[in-house]
Every structure is written in C-alpha cells, then in structure tokens.
Automatic annotation (TrEMBL):
Pathway: Glycan metabolism; pectin degradation; 2-dehydro-3-deoxy-D-gluconate from pectin: step 2/5. Belongs to the polysaccharide lyase 1 family. Coiled coil: none annotated. This is Pectate lyase. GO terms for molecular function: metal ion binding; pectate lyase activity. Residues 3-156 form the Pectate lyase domain. Residues 36-55 are annotated as: Disordered. Residues 38-55 have a biased composition (Polar residues). The lineage of its organism: Eukaryota, Viridiplantae, Streptophyta, Embryophyta, Tracheophyta. It comes from Actinidia rufa.
C-alpha cells in the first residue's frame, strides 16, 4: 500500500483496516475526515459495539464525524466525544465540527458531544439513550442542533438534552445554542441560549438538515462496516 506523508496530511491510497487497542485520539492539527470514515473500518473510531471513545484535542481544522453507531455498556463509553483541548486553549475557537447520521444508543451516559470553543453542527442524529445529558459544552461553543431525534430517559431529572458545564447562567445565556427541527420525545427538552440570529450559526452550518421524521431511515446503516479480510467492502 502506497502512503504519501506531508506536514499535515497522511494520504492512504487504498482501503485500510485499522484496529485500535486504545481510545482514538486526534491531536494538534489533525482531522478525522468524514469521507475517510466511510473507507476505514476501526473498532474505535467507527464506534462499533466494542469499547470505544474519541477525544479530539486541539482540533484546529474542519472535522466531520458521521455514520457511526455508538452502543457500549463499558465504562469507557461515558467518554464518547470530547471536542476541544481545554477551556484555556483559545486556539480551538477556530474549530469547526459536523456530527451527522449517528445513532447514540444504550449504555451511553453523556458527551455526545462535549464541546469547548469552536462551532458545532449536530445534524440528523438519533439519540435513544443518555443518563446525564446528550450535548454539553463550556468556553462558549456555538452549537447548532438540527433535525435530530432525542428520546429522553425515564429518569425525571435527566430529560434535558443540554448541559453547560461548570458555567454560571449569567455567562452561558449569551452562548449561541439552538434547536431547529428537532424531534423531542418522552419529555426531552433542549435549552437554547444566545441571540438566535441566523448569522451567528453560519460557521456551524455545514449541510442541509433533513426532516427529523426521516431519522430512522437516515441512521439505519450507522455502525461498523461489514467488511471482511480479502473482500472489498
């Protein structure tokens, strides 16, 4: 297999099976490309039914996390998606991430995703389980939630989709978080904030959202690829 390496990119010139034995981490100036996610089968980055999580630290380029199924009863599943290095790492203000066409299911607790700084488009995902919250953030991230299906747990105190982490309401009320066209079930509710102006979400809008009524069909193929060694996927 040929491989071209540059300062910022590693280009794989054929299909590749990657099996990670530990959690996948994207470090400084790396991106998990959405098109690549369709070509690479991994036990971690594809969020299969095996132990899995993702921490994107200091992600300064555009990123896309799509077409995954997240179902894992193990403790590591509580981590799920951490996007941003730390509240103090202000260079992440340029980060732009799209999370689309995923199924977040049984055994997951929180952080789907948990965002710091940056701009996040959460679009056409199916949330069928969480224990604490689905989407959280700190350090003034912009979160644009469109066309998702949120099915709240039976726990009366865990119906809220959102969580502002360790931040006073006097601060987070100015953050731009919105829900548009989402389907909220079993008492689920999304707490919006910010000015609400469409222009505020320009950098958190990467693709057109489909109707939340289509979520079942949109995410029906989410999950690890059904590939076998020696055969084309």
């Amino acid at each position: 297999m040929a491989m071209a390496i540059s300062k910022k990119w590693v280009s794989l010139c054929s299909l590749l099976l990657i099996v990670l034995l530990v959690a996948g981490v994207m470090a400084t100036v790396r991106t998990h490309d959405g098109s690549a996610s369709r070509k690479i089968q991994t036990e971690q980055l594809q969020r299969s039914s095996n132990n899995s999580s993702m921490a994107a630290t200091r992600l300064e380029d555009d990123g896309a996390l799509n077409e995954h199924a997240v179902d894992d009863p193990e403790e590591i599943a509580a981590m799920v998606m951490l996007l941003g290095h730390s509240d103090s790492y202000v260079r992440d203000k340029q980060m732009q991430v799209t999370i689309a066409y995923n199924h977040f299911g049984e055994g997951l607790i929180q952080r789907m995703p948990r965002c710091r700084h940056g701009y996040f488009h959460v679009v056409n995902n199916d949330y069928t389980h969480w224990e604490m919250y689905a989407i959280g953030g700190s350090a003034n991230p912009t979160i644009n939630s469109q066309g998702n299906r949120y099915l709240a747990p039976t726990n009366t105190f865990a119906k809220e989709v959102t969580k502002r982490v360790d931040t006073a309401a006097s601060q987070w009320k100015h953050w731009n978080w919105r829900s548009e066209g989402d389907l909220l079930l079993n008492g689920a509710y999304f707490t919006p904030s910010g000015a609400g102006a469409t222009a505020s979400y320009a950098r958190a809008s990467s693709l057109g959202a489909k109707s939340s009524s289509m979520i079942g069909s949109i995410t029906s193929s989410a999950g690890v690829l059904g590939c076998h060694r020696g055969h084309q996927c």
